[in-house]
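User: Some background: our group keeps a shared notebook of sequences we're curious about, and every so often someone picks one and asks for a predicted structure to add to the entry. Today it's my turn. The entry only has the sequence so far, pasted here. Could you supply the structure so I can complete it?
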Amino acid sequence: MSYSKLTFYLRNIKNLTSRKFWKSYNKVMGQKEKVIGAIKTLGLILAKHKISWLIGGSGSLLLQGVDVIPNDIDLIVDPKDFLESKLILKDILINKTESDINTKKVSFRVDGISGELLAYKIDRNLLTTVNLDGVTIFVHQLQVELEYYKLRKDNKEENQKKVKLIEKALLSLKS
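Assistant: Of course. Here's the predicted structure to add to the notebook entry:
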């Protein structure tokens, strides 16, 4: 049993006989497993190519044991690899490239999960890896994600919850 399933059981032990509980459980756990499966698919595709990439945001948090349910996947590539990444992922892209002052992005859908391919400079010193059944997935270290979520201005309440969850995860790593 995974840590997140055990945590879910323990938090909801009183409700184990409730039909509503199981419906909610299947939805929550199903989404987490779908996101992890989609990230693994991306890792399998990208492993064949020499580009700098990582999974960021809530996908990164999930892979590092933080109890979150991602709505989508943030696939970050180095700007120099953005065009090559678009070619590699052309079969899953679902719209044209959008650009603003800070980044380029394009939406995709893999294994039923939506995501965005984003171009940002990647500092390899800030990365760690997660192994998904033999597939190496690059993610930002939790401390990097913590700083990112502290700085975000959108979805303040949701981001503050994530800050607390990341801080809790970092404390448990130190123990």
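Suggested note for the entry: The first helix runs from residue 3 to 11. The helical segments are 3-11, 19-46, 57-63, 82-88, 142-151, 156-174.
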